[in-house]
Amino acid sequence: MPKSDQMPKKDQVPEKQQELKGMQAHREGLDILHEISTLLNTPLTYRQLAICTSLIEEGVNPETLASVVKVLMAEHPEEENSKGSA
């Protein structure tokens, strides 16, 4: 039987549940974004989309980020063929 000091406190349980729900919602949103990206034939991987999304959430200008991604893709076209590795 676990000791009482190892059990989460009552006020911590809802906080953890909220955190898990937030993570699940973030993942679902990213899944949808990846589906749209695939339908539009963008060469971005799931991981690359996650990075771009995180950068935008942190305040990076989306148009500037898109420009940088285009330049990087033009400079490194060989990376496009190895989608799973990036």
UniProtKB/TrEMBL annotation:
It comes from the Eukaryota. One of its GO terms (cellular component) is gamma-tubulin ring complex. Keywords: Cytoplasm, Cytoskeleton. Residues 1-24 are annotated as: Disordered. One of its GO terms (biological process) is mitotic spindle assembly. Pfam families: MOZART1. Its main location: cytoplasm. It is found in: Cytoplasm, Cytoskeleton, Microtubule organizing center, Spindle pole body. Required for gamma-tubulin complex recruitment to the microtubule organizing center (MTOC). Belongs to the MOZART1 family. Part of the gamma-tubulin complex. This is Mitotic-spindle organizing protein 1. The lineage of its organism: Eukaryota, Fungi, Dikarya, Ascomycota, Pezizomycotina.
